[in-house]
Write a structure and sequence with these properties.
Elements: E1 10-14, H1 36-49, E2 53-56, H2 66-73, E3 81-87, H3 93-106, E4 111-116, H4 127-145, E5 150-153, E6 158-161, E7 176-179, H5 183-192, E8 195-198, H6 203-219, E9 225-234, H7 238-248, H8 254-263, H9 270-280, E10 287-289, E11 292-293, E12 306-309, H10 311-323, E13 328-332, H11 336-346
Parallel strand pairs: 1-2, 1-13, 2-3, 3-4, 4-7, 7-8, 8-9, 9-12, 9-13
Antiparallel strand pairs: 5-6, 10-11, 11-12
Helix pairs in contact: 1-11, 3-4, 4-5, 5-6
Length: about 375
């Protein structure tokens, strides 16, 4: 064992609800496509191993509905939280509050919320108004879930309404996780997020973004926690881990990889652009740092890099990021259930981890 973090960090896994599971990137496998059975097994694996949370992503064109999935998983899981991605604008805010409160009761208080601001199907909004809409939604949603009456007249939300009768287990709102790199996204996060999520990047860039977000939040009288969303490839030796990374790309057709990247509704976002820059700055082997491999981004929009190495190296990289101020990690690997098993056996016992528990600051509009 080379590293034990002194403060606990939240360790979360990812359930591939949006058809994002492969043995070979870019080569669909019917057995790995998102379905109730397949995605259920990923979550049950993470729950059995003691992960603290699991991200349930949302996609319109691909995969299965994550809200229905979370409801179905509630009685099947024992301790793991569920980080439900919700797309701002898909539901009116009072209905969203009622739905989330119901889910939290079903999960016995184990719900967390990933706020998503990408365009809705058939809709295109410029960045600034789209994130303004998200800020207004977060404010009204937090108020309703905190059992407060809302009287709000904004650019997108116009409400005078009491909270729904049904409440969360604690009568308080679940934590809001949120990510985005554009100036408008950063202002939105500073105003309303509890946990600011970053996609993988070099440690110096992580520190740069964190310093900027700390300043933006402080200017609004708020504080943020920070999360890291990436993939992981861990094997008994570094050579084996690098060989597994190379194998993952061994059947990728470049045109198919580009098509996959363009399918996402957020494929033109600042965050996706930064992942492309990271990939282009990497060496011929795809590594931008010794243990940060950008090859995943050749066939995926969004988080496009993986921590790669032996168990001690992967644990040390997580420790380095924790020392830089990361409080939560959302990891995944290919195939998702198999890599979850490997990470849980090789690395998770080295990590001092637990659920994020803190009193969030009010949303500012």
């Amino acid at each position: 064992m080379t590293y034990v973090n002194t403060s606990p960090v939240e360790m979360a896994w990812f359930s591939a609800l949006c058809d994002d599971d492969y043995e070979f990137l870019g080569v669909p496998d019917d057995e790995l496509r998102s379905s109730w059975n397949h995605c259920r097994n990923i979550v049950l694996t993470a729950d059995r191993y003691g992960f603290d949370n699991v991200l349930l992503p949302s996609g319109y064109a691909l995969g299965i509905d994550n809200t229905a999935f979370a409801a179905g998983m509630a009685p099947l899981t024992d301790q793991i939280r569920m980080l439900l991605a919700v797309r701002c604008g898909e539901l009116v805010v009072p209905q969203m509050a009622r739905q989330l409160a119901t889910l939290d009761q079903m999960l016995q208080g184990r719900l967390t919320v990933n706020i998503i601001s990408s365009d809705l199907p058939g809709e295109t909004l410029e960045s600034e108004p789209r994130y303004r809409r998200s800020t207004e939604i977060m404010y009204c949603l937090r108020e309703l879930l905190d059992r407060k009456r809302v009287e709000f007249h904004g650019d997108f939300i116009d409400l005078e309404i009491d909270p729904p009768r049904i409440a969360t287990e604690t009568g308080r709102s679940p934590l809001f996780y949120f990510g985005g790199l554009s100036p408008a996204a950063r202002e939105c996060a500073a105003s309303g997020a509890d946990v600011f999520l970053m996609w993988p990047d070099t440690t110096d860039k992580v520190l740069e973004v964190k310093a900027d977000m700390d300043a933006r939040a402080a200017a609004k009288g708020r504080h943020l926690k920070y999360g890291w969303r990436s993939h992981v490839i861990v094997r008994e030796t570094e050579d084996e881990a690098r060989a597994a990374a190379a194998r993952l790309l061994s059947k990728l057709d470049a045109a198919e990889g580009e098509a996959i990247r363009k399918r996402s509704l957020d494929s033109a976002s600042a965050g996706v652009a930064r992942q492309a820059e990271l990939r282009e700055s990497a060496g011929d082997d795809g590594f931008v740092e010794r243990h940060l491999w950008t090859g995943v981004g050749r066939a995926r929009s969004g988080a496009g890099a993986a921590i790669v190495g032996d168990p001690d190296q992967v644990a040390a990289k997580i420790g380095e990021l924790a020392a830089a101020g990361i409080d939560a990690f959302i990891l995944s690997g290919y195939p998702h259930a198999a890599e979850c098993d490997l990470f849980a056996r090789y690395v998770l016992p080295q990590i001092h981890h637990g659920r994020l528990e803190f009193e969030p600051d009010p949303v500012v509009v």
